[in-house]
Predict the structure of DUF3039 domain-containing protein.
Amino acid sequence: MSTTTLPEVETRPESTDSTDSDEPKVFHYVRKNKIAESAVMGTHVVALCGEVFPVTKSPKPGSPVCPACKEIYEGLRPGPEGD
């Protein structure tokens, strides 16, 4: 098994996997610069875990986060501003 270092990525959680109540089951980490484009244009984004979806909702504090995205995000090196 080999490991690779992911490039520095600015990310923030975005939703997918809707429930019957139209609330997402989990939020995924995606590139910040793709969020607005997806929300306005309806284009799809790719989450750190590989999930592909259009941005339709923003997370609220305490929202559930995709475990795979969270693990990948926590393994990334800090960005230039320590983000």
